[in-house]
Write a structure and sequence with these properties.
Length: 195
């Protein structure tokens, strides 16, 4: 069992790398962004509230996210090989909650951080905006999301460094080259855990 927190700024390639990891290791993938977008699509009252937050590029409150994660972890299948947490945690408070929740079920996680230069992030997100139709993929919101990332999410680096479960990857390369680095980290971790 290996849980992987895939972190990085918007546009850092979390979704792409998650797909590669799922294919290679047969783990589950939880994208909190996807969960929230599905709620918006359902047209519920909650979805409307979430839409107002996400389209401005802000973070959904921690307590709202906690319910999503708690529910997910409580319903994991017994034979689960692990989960990629894509887009969670995004604040130190979320990181603390996740550690606690995982511990409750005798689990832990490693954190893989996709590091990408800001200019490249912006370019990728503008390109994605042309096809994604996502309300938050426009230049003003992109800039705001990157600022939110620096202010609210980046501090989790310290948290995982302190936990001793932090691994950085240079995400400026091609998807395949980034995956090679990710794979090296996961393989090393799996070997260490099998001992
Ligand atoms: P990206 O990483 O490209 O910004 P995501 O799909 O991961 O895209 O997230 C889109 C938006 O969903 C975020 O900007 C935020 O508003 C909301 N969101 C996703 N995950 C979380 C979270 N863990 N906590 C708070 N808000 C979140």
């Amino acid at each position: 069992m290996l849980n992987i927190i895939l972190s990085g700024a918007p546009g850092s390639g979390k979704g792409t790398q998650s797909g590669f990891i799922v294919e290679q290791y047969g783990v589950q993938h939880l994208s909190t962004g996807d969960v929230l977008r599905a709620e918006i699509k359902s047209g519920s009252e909650l979805g409307k509230k979430i839409d107002a937050i996400i389209s401005k590029g802000n973070l959904v409150p921690d307590d709202m996210m906690y319910g999503v994660i708690e529910n997910y972890i409580a319903h994991l299948p017994k034979d689960c090989k692990g989960t990629i947490f894509d887009g969670y945690p995004r604040t130190v408070a979320q990181a603390e909650s996740l550690t606690e929740l995982l511990r409750k079920y005798n689990m832990d996680a490693i954190m893989i951080d996709l590091m990408v230069d800001e200019q490249l992030l912006i370019q990728r997100l503008i390109d994605r905006g042309k096809i994604s139709g996502r309300a938050d993929d426009n230049l003003n919101t992109i800039r705001h999301r990157i600022a939110v990332y620096h202010n609210q999410t980046e501090p989790i680096t310290e948290y995982y460094l302190h936990e001793g479960t932090y691994f950085a990857v240079n995400g400026n390369h091609s998807m395949e080259d980034v995956f090679k680095q990710v794979k090296r980290i996961i393989d090393r971790e799996l070997v260490a855990r099998s001992k």
